[in-house]
From TrEMBL:
<keyword id="KW-0540">Nuclease</keyword>
<dbReference type="InterPro" id="IPR003615">
    <property type="entry name" value="HNH_nuc"/>
</dbReference>
<keyword id="KW-0255">Endonuclease</keyword>
<dbReference type="GO" id="GO:0016788">
    <property type="term" value="F:hydrolase activity, acting on ester bonds"/>
</dbReference>
<feature type="domain" description="HNH nuclease">
    <location>
        <begin position="62"/>
        <end position="103"/>
    </location>
</feature>
<dbReference type="InterPro" id="IPR044925">
    <property type="entry name" value="His-Me_finger_sf"/>
</dbReference>
<feature type="domain" description="NUMOD4">
    <location>
        <begin position="8"/>
        <end position="51"/>
    </location>
</feature>
<feature type="compositionally biased region" description="Polar residues">
    <location>
        <begin position="96"/>
        <end position="105"/>
    </location>
</feature>
<dbReference type="Pfam" id="PF07463">
    <property type="entry name" value="NUMOD4"/>
</dbReference>
<feature type="region of interest" description="Disordered">
    <location>
        <begin position="85"/>
        <end position="105"/>
    </location>
</feature>
<keyword id="KW-0378">Hydrolase</keyword>
<dbReference type="InterPro" id="IPR010902">
    <property type="entry name" value="NUMOD4"/>
</dbReference>
<dbReference type="Pfam" id="PF13392">
    <property type="entry name" value="HNH_3"/>
</dbReference>
<protein>
    <submittedName>
        <fullName>NUMOD4 motif-containing HNH endonuclease</fullName>
    </submittedName>
</protein>
<dbReference type="GO" id="GO:0004519">
    <property type="term" value="F:endonuclease activity"/>
</dbReference>
Length: 193
């Protein structure tokens, strides 16, 4: 059982015992060459290193190796999540398993997801209470209700005009019906066509 500590601890990398060790600080040691491996940071995701076994070289994610060595087996269909959403913080106490949806919810909660900072849809409608698709919101996504409804209506009846015109009409109606606050409505400026 792992107990958090400031002292660096080393354990064998699961599946590479006798070849590599990993520390509770996320550093990887090659036992054959007695040197630290330099991690690589891809554009998306956590730090990785190449490990070789039986002349086969494979890329391995450091956070998964730390979790396996210090905490235990990663359940099927689960990912290893960073509680603070910092992919370079691979301390065991910062790692937990969960579903991919749990990982997305973490990013939204910690404002690490680009969509969590979006204040308006591409048609410039504010993403505020009353203008969000509830089904999407329950899954951690924010979608414009005005555009969603307009998309359906224009598809069924093309004579209504453009998607932009119809979504603007629906946004005004949501405000008139009291679903959108006056402040949110006043902040809205229809985009120039």
């Amino acid at each position: 059982m792992y107990q958090p500590t400031n002292i660096e601890q080393w354990r064998p990398v699961v599946g590479y015992e006798g070849l590599y060790e990993i520390s509770n600080k996320g550093r990887v040691l090659s036992l054959r060459y007695n040197r630290m491996l330099k991690p690589w940071k891809p554009p998306r995701g956590g730090l990785q290193v190449h490990l070789t076994k039986n002349k086969t070289r494979k890329m391995n994610q450091i956070h998964r190796m730390v979790y396996s060595a210090f905490i235990g087996e990663i359940p099927d269909e689960h990912v290893v999540r960073h509680l603070n959403d910092n992919p370079e913080d691979n301390r065991p106490e910062n790692l937990i398993t969960g579903t991919p949806q749990d990982n997305t919810n973490d990013m939204l909660r910690n404002s690490g997801h680009y969509r969590s900072k979006t204040t308006a849809c591409p048609r410039n409608h504010p993403l505020v209470e009353g203008n969000l698709v509830l089904g999407q919101l329950k899954r951690g996504h924010r979608s414009c209700l005005s555009c969603d409804r307009a998309r359906i209506r224009v598809k069924r009846n093309p004579s209504l005009g453009t998607l932009k015109d119809e979504s603007d009409r629906i946004f005004r109606k949501l405000h008139d019906d009291g679903n959108i606050s006056d402040a949110a409505y006043m902040s809205w400026r229809p985009a120039k066509q």
